[in-house]
Amino acid sequence: MTDRNGPRVTIADFKAAMRKFAATVTLVTTNHDGKSHGMPATAITSLSAEPPSLLVCINRSASMHGPTSRSRHFCVNMLTQEQAWLCTEFGTRAGGDRFQVGEWRIGMHGLPYVASAAATLFCTVEDQLDYGTHTIFVGKIDAIKIGSPAEPLVYQEGHMGSFVPLPSRASTGERARA
User: Fold this and answer.
1) CATH number (domain holding residue 136)
2) Could you tell me how far CA 98 lies from the centroid of its own chain?
């Protein structure tokens, strides 16, 4: 559909296009007033290497939103293929029950983290911006815990899966011939 300003983007079209975007599956957590909060998330991206920072986008209607905004800290747990079950369980449980599955530890800023995650990033909220239905949290990375070199868990087209590198000339160091 178009209007006088050009093509009109529908919510359905936007969602269909975003399903094509593969992303690492994470569990984002926070702690506020002694209570742990968390949610599965893929709306995360690196922002800057200097200072080390990232963006996390959280729907303002999500139970995680208020505690993250008030605590001013969050943790991003990058999951492995073997942890797909944890993401499913975490996504279907409510409140503190989410932390009854998996192996959790308490780290910097009192943040809960997955002990065996591929990587864990502990962040302080440096800024936040409301846009549409979400808040974009800018997190300054205070500490990083690198886990074992396991395959990352990836989400695309409504399914969790794994990343499989393609054999290519670039990956073997060969140059394309003109």
Assistant:
1) 2.30.110.10
2) 16
Q: Are 61 and 55 in contact (CB under 8 A)?
A: no
Tally of residues, the chain: 178
pLDDT in tens, 15-50: 888 888 888 999 999 999 999 999 999 889 999 999
Q: Is residue 164 part of a domain?
A: yes
pLDDT tens, residue by residue, 140-169: 999 999 997 888 899 888 888 888 788 876
- Residue 32's domain comprises 12-172
CB burial of residue 50 (10 Å; 0-12, 13-18, 19+): exposed
- Answer yes or no: is 53 within a domain: yes
- The answer to whether the CB of 75 falls within 8 A of the CB of 112 is yes
